[in-house]
Design a protein that fits this description.
With about 525 residues, the chain is an alpha+beta fold. It folds into three domains: about 140 residues, no CATH class; about 210 residues, Beta-Lactamase; about 170 residues, 2-Layer Sandwich (Alpha-Beta Plaits), CATH 3.30.70. Helices cover about 50% and strands about 20% of the residues. The strands form four sheets. Strands 3-2-1-6-5-4 form a six-stranded antiparallel sheet. A five-stranded mixed sheet has the order 12-13-11-16-17, sandwiched between helices. A four-stranded antiparallel sheet has the order 8-7-10-9, with helices on one face. The chain starts with a helix and ends with a helix.
Length: about 525
């Protein structure tokens, strides 16, 4: 009876310990996976928000240019000037009523809703509201309704632009000065802007939604999902001169590959942890022999090590004890191996550029340090090539960011092919620097790349690689049916020929790249004195 009681107590204690440790391991694993997920998504959302800001600014700039062009067209009309001289306000109103019929507005490049004329004392002379039912005289300027105090004084030389919201509708106001008989007068054109923001959906890769300050949706992309996580939304607010929101532009991050990978990782983690807990309970309830306690202690010890330090994840334990306990330990080893692979997958995501699938700047910083330490230790040498694509910004502005992204992917593929065909693929560099050959090509950001050549055999070999990289860019790139030509500027610095510390190698390569671009050269090696000539 006493033995049975002790046996029950031991079984309860062991079972409780295994359950607690299993739950703690499950919680720690889920927290780690969630942290990786949050960091990855946060980085993506920051990039999307910057793109929304750029496209919103471009849209407003276009509307400002069109407002100025239309205003210039109106005030240069002889009939308009004559009406101003004669103070013929009735004719001014009739003239302004005809604005919707001019080709400039019929083209749809801008949507003028109100027009006002002010005298040299900034007094309102005439104003109309343009709509489908005709023109209606309006006494109060739209963009002044919300301002009960005096507005910003007009400038006699410069055009004044202002954003405003009236009756929950966003507008752009352009006040343009003009001269009649040496007197200054002003014309104000107020355009509706919300429909012009729809074009952002054609530029941004991800689905776009546009909302008014009151939350009302005025545009939603067809690609916008019906179900989504609010934490996946990147938002940018267009502000007026008083820093009040005029319109909200949002994009939702949709990356099925990333979502599937993270979901699969979490599913496998949970399943593996649950399986290990269930197996542990079954074993503790069915077998309580002397050979059980020690093997279970091995499992508990390994779990504690993993919980304290993830580097122990993947380490195997020797199977021993009763048959059921050995099965438990084999399952633990399998679970440990699976979790280790999942962590490696998640870790790789943090070192990979999401567009080109090359290494990113974080990987570059680690690899250059690794290669540098190897060269110092073995008295070897290496070369660093920093690459900048010429004319890329012009291509982006001309064809859009979608074509620019495809251009970067194709450029990365060509660079990778050059490295694969070089003799570096036949050297066994994986054993020397513990990195795959493809990780020697890095995208630093934008149109900037880096190539690390460990154990390079002097200046001639680095020059040969640079020549091959420049040659593949000389061939036009076919993107969406367009033959696009780019240039390339490469700066090269050698260790130990040019410098013996890591920071100077990077700085010298960047200096050489700058001079190569300025002098129209495909590539240039660093030379003493280049930094002094850099302006």
């Amino acid at each position: 009876m006493i033995f049975q009681t002790k046996f029950q107590s031991i079984r309860f204690i062991v079972t409780s310990i295994i359950i607690v440790l299993g739950v703690l391991s499950l919680v720690a694993t889920l927290i780690t996976a969630q942290v990786y997920h949050t960091l990855t998504l946060s980085s993506q959302l920051e990039n999307i928000e910057k793109q929304l800001q750029q496209e919103s600014d471009k849209t407003l700039q276009r509307l400002k240019q069109f407002s100025l062009q239309l205003g210039t067209l109106i005030v240069n009309s002889d009939k308009f000037k004559s009406a101003i001289r004669k103070s013929n306000y009735k004719y001014l109103q009739d003239y302004l009523k005809q604005l919707p019929s001019i080709p400039f507005l019929q083209s749809g490049v801008i949507s003028i809703r109100f027009a006002y004329i002010y005298d040299n004392h900034q007094k309102l002379l005439s104003g109309i509201k343009l709509n489908t039912d005709g023109s209606v005289v309006t006494k109060t300027p739209v963009c002044h309704i919300n301002n009960h105090e005096s507005t910003t004084p007009f400038d006699v030389n410069d055009v004044i632009y202002n954003l405003c919201v009236n009756q929950q509708q966003p507008y752009l106001s352009a006040i343009i000065p003009f001269h009649v008989d040496n007197k200054v007068a002003y014309i104000e054109l107020v355009s509706e802007i919300k429909t012009h923001f729809h074009s952002i959906d054609q530029v941004v890769v991800f689905p776009v939604r546009i909302r008014l300050p009151n939350g009302k949706e005025i545009y939603t992309s067809d690609r916008w999902p019906t179900k989504y996580n609010k934490k996946s939304i990147a938002a940018y607010s267009v502000l007026d001169n008083e820093h009040q929101a005029v319109i909200h532009v949002e994009a939702i991050h949709v990356d099925n590959n990333l979502v599937k990978a993270l979901s699969l990782a979490q599913t496998l983690v949970i399943s593996g942890a649950l399986i290990s807990i269930i197996l542990a309970i079954v074993v503790s309830l069915s077998i309580m022999k002397q050979t059980v306690i020690s093997p279970v202690n091995d499992v508990v010890s390994s779990l504690r090590k993993v919980r304290e330090n993830r580097e122990h994840l993947g380490q195997q334990i020797n199977s021993r004890g009763a048959e059921e306990i050995m099965a438990l330990m084999d399952d633990f080893n399998a679970m440990s191996s699976s979790l280790n692979e999942l962590y490696k997958t998640l870790e790789k995501m943090t070192y990979t550029d999401s567009l080109t699938r090359l290494g990113n700047r974080k990987l570059f910083n680690e690899k250059i340090e690794h290669v540098f330490e190897h060269a110092v230790k073995h008295e070897g040498c290496f070369a660093l090539l920093l690459i900048d694509l010429d004319k890329f910004k012009q291509v982006n502005d001309t064809y859009g960011h979608s074509v620019g992204d495809k251009l970067l992917v194709e450029t990365s593929n060509r660079f990778s092919e050059v490295l694969r065909q070089s003799r570096f693929t036949r050297r066994g560099l994986d054993n020397i620097i513990s990195t795959p050959v493809q990780d020697l090509l890095i995208r630093l950001g934008g149109d900037e790349f880096a190539v690390i050549l460990p154990d390079v055999e002097g200046k001639d070999e680095a020059s040969n690689i640079a020549t091959q990289l420049a040659k593949v860019i000389d061939r036009p790139l076919l993107i969406d049916g367009q033959d696009i030509e780019l240039g390339i500027s490469i700066g090269i610095a050698l260790y130990p020929d040019h410098a013996r510390d890591q920071d100077r190698i990077i700085r010298f390569a960047d200096t050489a790249m700058y001079h190569a671009k300025r002098n129209g050269m495909d590539f240039m090696f660093y030379e003493a004195g280049l930094e002094e000539n850099q302006s």
